[in-house]
Amino acid sequence: AQSVTQLDSQVPVFEEAPVELRCNYSSSVSVYLFWYVQYPNQGLQLLLKYLSGSTLVKGINGFEAEFNKSQTSFHLRKPSVHISDTAEYFCAVRPMNTGFQKLVFGTGTRLLVSP
Amino acid sequence: DGGITQSPKYLFRKEGQNVTLSCEQNLNHDAMYWYRQDPGQGLRLIYYSQIVNDFQKGDIAEGYSVSREKKESFPLTVTSAQKNPTAFYLCASMGPTRDPPYEQYFGPGTRLTVT
Fold this sequence. Notes:
The structure holds two protein chains of two kinds.
Chain A: E1 3-5, E2 10-14, E3 19-21, E4 24-26, E5 31-38, E6 44-50, E7 56-58, E8 64-68, E9 73-78, E10 87-95, E11 104-105, E12 109-114
Parallel strand pairs in A: 2-12
Antiparallel strand pairs in A: 1-4, 3-9, 5-6, 5-10, 7-8, 8-9, 10-11, 10-12
Chain B: E1 4-7, E2 10-13, E3 19-25, E4 31-37, E5 43-51, E6 54-57, E7 64-66, E8 76-78, E9 87-94, E10 104-106, E11 110-114
Parallel strand pairs in B: 2-11
Antiparallel strand pairs in B: 1-3, 3-8, 4-5, 4-9, 5-6, 7-8, 9-10, 9-11
């Protein structure tokens, strides 16, 4: 079975400051990893994903994430946040190379950007 | 444009009434999912379907029912047996298990309020 931990339920940050949202996972098999963003009263939108290859992946809106297999982490970063980045962010995993069709989500991190 | 539609965006019902939430996709995906979202609890899987005429219970199926008569459609019925139905409901779909892009696609959600 897989599990995803997002330790920070809420991260306050000032506009133009850097931010890191942490994600750790547990799995006995290799996994694909995803970050989604959810704006208020909307569905989830894919920010970025790691499937294979380079461990640093770039996504939309200036976000990037780094896969660290030894630490089983997939932290999300942005060097300079905007007010419009205020949203909830979800990390998710899915086992590789199987018929398993479910994603396992973390509980989410609310990013609050203030002026 | 391909995507997932959920209707209505907001739904109000009296306690004791069944209500059906609509989910339609034109992505030609086999797998479809229903999640419930409550503040601070992330996404919880209600039901999922991997193919037409087949579906499985998720983590919180009690008080809910689904059908999958067509590939494009996966309606969710919230029955009067659901003790706390007020929540934000998200529908999602996913493509072939062993082929890219591997992520789930989400609809815009339906906010159900039961009084």
